[in-house]
Structure formats: C-alpha cells, structure tokens
Amino acid sequence: MSFHSMWTELLPLGRDSASGGYRRYAWTPADTDCRAWFRAQALARGLTHETDRNGNQWAWLGDPAAGNALVTGSHLDSVPDGGAFDGPLGVVSAFAALDELRSRGVPFTRPFGIVNFGDEEGARFGLACVGSRLATGALTVEAAHRLTDAQGITLPRAMEAAGHDPDALGPDPERLGRIGAFVELHVEQGRALDLTGDAVGVASAIWPHGRWRYDFRGEANHAGTTRLADRRDPMPAYAETVLAARREAQRAGAVATFGKVAVEPNGVNAIPSLVRGWLDSRAADQPTLDTVTGALEKAAREYADAHGVELDVVRESFTPVVEFDHGLRDALARILGSGTDLTVPVLGTGAGHDAGILSAAVPTAMLFVRNPTGVSHSPAEYATEDDCTAGVTALADVLEGLIRT
Ligand SMILES: [Zn+2]
Predict the structure, then answer these.
(1) Which of 273, 271, 264, 276 is nearest to 228 (CA)?
(2) Burial state string for 257-295 with b = 16 or more CB within 10 A and e = fewer than 16
(3) Mind telling me which residue stretches traverse the membrane in this protein (predicted)?
(4) Domain ranges of the chain
(5) How far away, in angstroms, is 269 Cα from ligand 1 center?
(6) Which of 202, 147, 174, 154 is nearest to 324 (CA)?
(7) Judging by DSSP bridges, how do beta strands 274-282 and 255-264 pair with one another?
(8) How far is the CA of 195 from the centre of ligand 1 (A)?
(9) pTM of this prediction?
(10) Which CATH class is domain 209-319?
C-alpha cells in the first residue's frame, strides 16, 4: 500500500468535522481506530504485531529477541484539534520505508520494528510521552495510576475501557534492551528547514526548557483616586518584564514566552494587588538558557523595585538538554549527505518527543521533514507530498545504511 493510500485511509480517523482538527486522545474510540489501522498495516505486510504492557504498539519483521533491533516509528495520537502530520507522518513513513527497503532487496540481517507510542501528546491526562516514559521508568507506575482526565477517569480505568490490561504497566528494560537503534521521523515544528531550503534535516538535540512563575505583589487600590506617585502597581513591572523577556531571548538566540497571566483582583477599575505571569523559556544549550533567565530575573527585580512591588520567582519545572546519540546522528548525516554536495542540516528543536525520552535507554536519532509555515499542533500543520516522499526516501536510506553497516 502506497504512502498516499495509507495517508488517505488514516485521514478521516478522529477528525472533528467542525474544526477540521484531530482529537485522537489516548484510549478513546478514535485512538482505538488508529490502533486498528496500525495493526492492519502490520498484518498486511506479514509482520508480527503486539501491544506492550504500556500500550505501545509494535510491528516486527524478524524476532526482536535476537537483539540489536532497528526500530522506527512515532505516534498516532494528537493534541486537541491537532494537525494530520505530528505523529502520523512518522508512522506512515515507517511502513512506506519498509516497503521501499523490500523493493530495494535490502537483506534484513537484524530484527526490524515499527512502533506507535501510546499517548505521546498527553492531551487527555496532561502528561506527554506516557507510553515511552513508563517503558523507560521515567514515569512510575504509582504516578501513572494517579493520572486522571477532565471527566475524572483515571488512566488505568481508561485503558481497561479500551480493552487493555492496566495491571501490567511498568518499566520494560528487557524490551528496550533489544533495540540497537531508534530513528523517529517527524514533521518539523518550526521553519528552520524552510529557511535553509531543505526537505529533510537531522536532529541534534532537544533544547533544555523550563517554566518559571513570576509573582509581582503590590497594593490594590482605587484606579480613579490613587495618585500615580502613591501607587504600588505590579502591572507595569510585569509589562516591562514581558518586554525584557523578548529582548533577552532575541539577544541570545533563544525563545522566551509569557503565555499565561493571572491578575488579582482583576477589576477594570482596580490597581492590581498581584500579577502572576508564567514564563516558558528554551535555548539551544544550558548556559544560554541560564543567561536569558538570569538576565530576565535581574531586570524584573529592578522593575519591581522601581514600582515599589515585591517579586518572587519560582522555577516550576525544568528539563535538561537531550542530546541525541552522536554516533547515530553523524551516521545519519553521513548517509544522507553522501552522493550529493549538499550537507544535511543538523538542527535542534524546542519540542519534546518519544525519541527524547527513549534516548535515556536506547541510541536514538530523529529526522525532520520541512513544514513550510512552521505551524504545528493546529489543523494548518502541513508538509507537501513531495517533501513527505523525500522524507520516506531519507528514512529508507538511513535504515538501509544502518542495516548494511
Ligand atoms: Zn509528535
């Protein structure tokens, strides 16, 4: 079955007719439909199919117990009203690359697997990469049991309702130990490839990222009767901080975003007593990120002092840099670069992936396919058919190269 027919078959599953976006949340009927599609593709190719203890789906050519398996794939679930490409492009390309390898007559000298990781987006239970986190032990069984959706349904009950046994949840070192390399192809979630004019790139690393809460505390008062000189207004201090975040990020080549804000008392005619803003910042490396967030906090304290308000900064979460396996990354760049005088772009990404989680246990690499607008997690997410074809060819080249070396 061609890339085009697989893609067309998958397109209507879990699509909301009003928004045009996808609602393929973990362990819902839409997810079950996607899983049935994956299983059918596996069986149609004579692969053995299994769902592991954490709800990840695997299709195998050869016996994975032999070890040093070569695995590719991604995920089929989506964010609320997500696009068609984030996840599915990597799974469909995996099946298409296998077909291509077979038509090239590549000898499968090592086990070959295609994977659909469960609940990558975390749309239903609020935590991303649940399937891969459970497998690597990055998410404990106890914490997984506590995950609850907006309707109050826990992860185990949701799995059960979808016909999957939740009692088996837990780390899976034996299964991961059989994998010699994992390559995930993914639509790019930015415009780096569009700017360089390349259809395909290789990932270097997932940027370190964190979230910080900025609490500016002042004094609530009457918006009409309080002289400007007498105010302790946290809003202008916060506003100057937002502008400084943009300036510091720009200076360092990083990103910094205040995307969520809460104001108390939140009255149109009241000077706020509290402005609480959440900063999300990411950079290519830790020193750059530290520079941006350090400079921003220093600036924010000056603005707070100038406006007579207090500032508390709390780091709520932090994920260090994930470096993909250097040997594998260089092998990919070498395989894709050979035969042309073009070098393959190697780029970092600010978004998380199963490949990032898995890299703690398995040599892992990623390929990105150009996204002309850079828009992702939206129905506007897009890659041209030519670029998807180039992605399949690149993936097949990489897999063949890894099989033959
Ligand atoms: Zn994804």
Answers:
(1) 271
(2) ebeeeebeeeeeebbbbbbbbebbbbbbeeebbebbbeb
(3) none
(4) 3-207+321-404, 209-319
(5) 44
(6) 202
(7) antiparallel
(8) 21
(9) 0.86
(10) alpha beta
Helix, coil or strand: residue 131: helix
Tokens, residue 366:
């990623």
d(CA 192, ligand 1 centre) in Å? 17
What pLDDT is recorded for position 342?
Answer: 53
CA of residue 374 to ligand 1 center, whole Å: 14
Tell me how far the alpha carbon of residue 167 lies from the centroid of ligand 1, in angstroms: 27
Is it true that domain 3-207+321-404 has CATH number 3.40.630.10? yes
Rounded to the nearest angstrom, the distance between the alpha carbon of 87 and the centre of ligand 1 is 4
Which region, left, alpha or beta, applies to residue 378 given φ > 0 means left and ψ of -120 to 50 means alpha? beta
Q: Cα(117) to centroid of ligand 1, in Å?
A: 10
E runs forming strands in 234-295: 255-264, 270-271, 274-282
Query: Measured in Å, how far apart are the chain's first and last C-alpha atoms?
Result: 28
pLDDT in tens, 262-283: 999 999 999 999 999 999 999 9
Contact 294, 256 (CB under 8 A): no
How far, in Å, is the centroid of ligand 1 from the Cα of 397?
Answer: 22
Rounded distance from Cα 120 to ligand 1 centre (Å): 7
CA 111 to centroid of ligand 1, rounded, Å = 25
The rounded Å distance from CA 129 to ligand 1 centre is: 9
User: 184 CA distance to ligand 1 centroid (A)?
Assistant: 10
Q: If DSSP codes are grouped into helix, strand and coil, which group holds residue 172?
A: coil
- Picking from 74, 94, 135, the residue whose alpha carbon sits closest to that of residue 6 is 94
Q: How far is the CA of 63 from the centre of ligand 1 (A)?
A: 27
Report the C-alpha gap between 168 and 56 in whole angstroms. Answer: 12
C-alpha 298/C-alpha 292 separation (Å) is: 10
Calculate ∠ Cα 173-177-181, nearest 5°.
130
Convert the pLDDT of each residue in 308-331 to its tens digit: 999 999 998 888 898 899 999 988
